[in-house]
Structures are given as structure tokens and as C-alpha cells.
Amino acid sequence: MNEFIALMLFTLLALGFGGLLAWAAKRFHIDGNPLIGQIDAILPQTQCAQCGYPGCKPYAEAIANDEADINLCVPGGETVVIMLSELTGKEIKPIEAEAKPKQFAFIKEEECIGCVKCIAACPVDAIIGAAKFTHTVITHECTGCELCIPVCPTDCIVMEEPSVTQRNWQWPKPVGPIGEGARK
Ligand code: SF4
Ligand code: SF4
Ligand code: SF4
Q1: What is the pTM of this model?
Q2: Last residue of a domain, which of 88, 121, 150?
Q3: Residue 70 in domain
Q4: Could you report the per-residue pLDDT of 35-83, keeping only the tens digit for each?
């Protein structure tokens, strides 16, 4: 009789622990492909959509699902392409988009009605202002993604190239592979 009771107890305990493990597996299950998070961690997180996806995470998902190439992130540039190639094993390619000169948004303040739509659209919080007050762009925070342009009801946001000063002037970047044109 004692052996029967012990057997029943062990059976009940086994069923209890089994149920607990099943619940824990369901409760703490991590959804999705872990590669997505690894790719997302490499991307610059400016959420500028220049890659053609609405943000870095959707682009990371597209790469992980073999739906997008690794050379679409303009702000990330070559460095991100190389890191993504090392992670995914995909071939290194030049950045897909045409190289554009560095630009930033500028708000014509006299035409701004303070609707705050541009603030909501800016992925990097580069615009400051309040409802019914003029807004302005923090130039050094602006990535030049142009997402604020179409939402402005008065078309008072324009893209401008930074003026060259002694602080930001640089030698022009050389073209061609390293060593090209060197004397032999
Ligand atoms: S272009 Fe780069 S930084 Fe911009 S949303 Fe796409 S992945 Fe993110
Ligand atoms: S200010 Fe406009 S162009 Fe600049 S980062 Fe924000 S949304 Fe993009
Ligand atoms: S969307 Fe245009 S009008 Fe509205 S706050 Fe921004 S700059 Fe001003």
C-alpha cells in the first residue's frame, strides 16, 4: 500500500514539474530569428528610411529573411556593409544609393505655423519647437533623411548644404583604388 502511495506521489510530482516546465517554455519563449537583433544592433538606428524600409528593424528583418541586400543603409556607409558582411556572409558591395552631398533641413521660420508635424516625423529629434510657435532644426543632429519635408503643410522646410567654414573644410576625398596614379 505504501509503495502504491509513493508511486502516486512521484507521478503527481512528475506531472506537476512537467506542467511547470511547459508553462515556463511558453512564457519565456523568445520569438523570431536572433539574427534580426544582431543585424539591428549594427545599424545606426537613425530610423531615417533611406534604405527603403520604414526603420532599422524592418531593414534588419529584410536582410535576415534574404529579402534585402546589405548595402542599402546610406548613413551606415561602408563600415556597416563590412560589418553586415562579416555577420551574414553576404558579399560586400558598394552602397546602393547615389552619393549625395551632405545636407540638412532648414525651416523658413516666417512661414512656419507651428503645427508640430515635422517634430513627429523626425526620427532623430533634430527639430525643436512647440505648438503654434516657430520651429527650428538642430543642424548637427539632422541626418538629412528628408522625412520632415512631405509632412509640412506650408512647404517651409528646405534642404540645404552646409556652408564651408574653417571649422568644417576638408581636403576633397581621393577617387579610385588606393595606390592608383602612384609613381612606379
Ligand atoms: S537607412 Fe540605415 S539608419 Fe536609416 S532606417 Fe535604414 S537601416 Fe536605419
Ligand atoms: S530634421 Fe528632417 S531631414 Fe533632418 S533628420 Fe529630422 S526629419 Fe530628417
Ligand atoms: S511641419 Fe512645417 S509648419 Fe509645421 S511646425 Fe514643422 S516647419 Fe512648421
Answers
A1: 0.65
A2: 88
A3: yes
A4: 999 999 999 998 888 898 989 999 999 999 999 999 999 889 899 999 9
66 found inside a domain: yes
Tell me the best of 46, 72, 78 to mutate to test the pocket of ligand 1, counting ligand atoms within 8 Å of each CB and taking the most. Answer: 46
Residue partners of 137: CB distance under 8 A and separation at least 6: 104, 105, 106, 107, 126, 127, 157
CATH number at residue 122: 3.30.70.20
Distance 60 CA to ligand 1 centre (A): 9
Query: Which pLDDT tens digit goes with each residue over 21-32?
Result: 566 556 555 567
Q: 157: Cβ below 6 Å to ligand 3?
A: yes
Q: Is 7 inside a domain boundary?
A: no
Ligand 3: distance of its center to the CA of 142 in Å?
15
Q: Are residues 38 and 78 in the same domain?
A: yes
Chain centre distance of CA 63: 13
Q: Which atom of ligand 3 lies at the shortest distance from residue 114's CA?
A: 5
In angstroms, what is the span from residue 77 Cα to ligand 1's centroid? Answer: 10
Question: Quick check: is 171 in a domain?
Answer: no
Q: 73 and 38, same structural domain?
A: yes
Ligand 3 pocket test target in 104, 106, 107, 111 with most atoms within 8 Å of CB: 107
How many domains does the structure of the chain reveal?
2
